Structure formats: C-alpha cells, structure tokens
C-alpha cells in the first residue's frame, strides 16, 4: 500500500508533536510505501529511505487554506495513494481516498470554558468529519 501521512505537526510542542515524532519511524519500518507531507527540512531525516517520498507542504493545519483551497497538486498526489493518515483530527478538503485519523484533545465540548464559543464551533467543525 501507498500511504500519505500528514507530518505538518512533527515539530509541534506538546502531545501531538511527540505522538507524530514517535510513531512515524514505526510506520516507515513497515513494508508499505509512504508520501510524507510537511516541511522538507524537518523531514529530511526520513527522505533517504527507499520506501519514502517527502513532499513539501507549508499549509498551516486548521487554516481556511487547508479546508477550502488545499493545492490541487498536493491533493492529486494524496489521492494517488491508497489512504491518508493524519495524527490529528484536521483533514484537508477534497481527499477522495480513505482517511484515517487519531483524535486527540477533544475535551473542549465538555469544558466550554476552555475556549470561546467561536473557538468551540471551529473545533467541532474539524472534529465532525474525523468522527
């Protein structure tokens, strides 16, 4: 299988960044081939593997650009894969292959004082398709 993996969170602080950094090597040790999306410089350690291709993607997670105007060139490459995996619940629009996500940090609906009402609505907007 060819698997596209969203690696844009690889240098994030906190749990999502640690999760992304620690799980990626285990994915890459499998017999699959991979298309890694993220900052080419931050992913250069993985680019030398024969089963791995790194494609530069500087689009910020949870942005309008990610949701509605993700570049067609990148979408085409993702949609040529067998599946798309993201270590968080944000998924770019127009991905037509099966999507797998790891859902982190969704305590905000139960603790609305953590975020503003618009912030809560925005987070729920991203979580719904992941579920």
Per DSSP, the total helix count is 4
Radius of gyration: 15 Å
Q: Percent range for helical residues?
A: 25-40%
* Structural shape: globular
Give the tally of β-strands.
5
- Secondary-structure class: alpha/beta
Distance between the termini: 23 Å
Q: Nutshell version of this structure?
A:
By secondary structure, this protein is α/β, with parallel strands linked by helices. It is built from four helices and five strands.
List keywords for this structure.
131 residues; alpha/beta; five-stranded parallel beta sheet; 5 strands; 18% strand; globular
Please explain how this structure is put together.
With 131 residues, this protein is of the alpha/beta class. It has one domain (2-105). 31% of the residues lie in helices and 18% in strands. The chain is built from four helices and five strands, in the order βαββααββα. It has helices spanning 15-28, 64-68, 72-79, 117-130; strands at 2-6, 33-38, 52-56, 83-86, 99-101. It has a five-stranded parallel β-sheet with strand order 3-2-1-4-5, covered by helices on one side. α1 (15-28) links the parallel β1 (2-6) and β2. The longest helix has 14 residues, at 15-28. It is globular and about 45 Å long. 21% of the residues are buried. The model has no long low-confidence stretch (mean pLDDT 89).
Topology:
Blueprint: E1 2-6, H1 15-28, E2 33-38, E3 52-56, H2 64-68, H3 72-79, E4 83-86, E5 99-101, H4 117-130
Parallel strand pairs: 1-2, 1-4, 2-3, 4-5
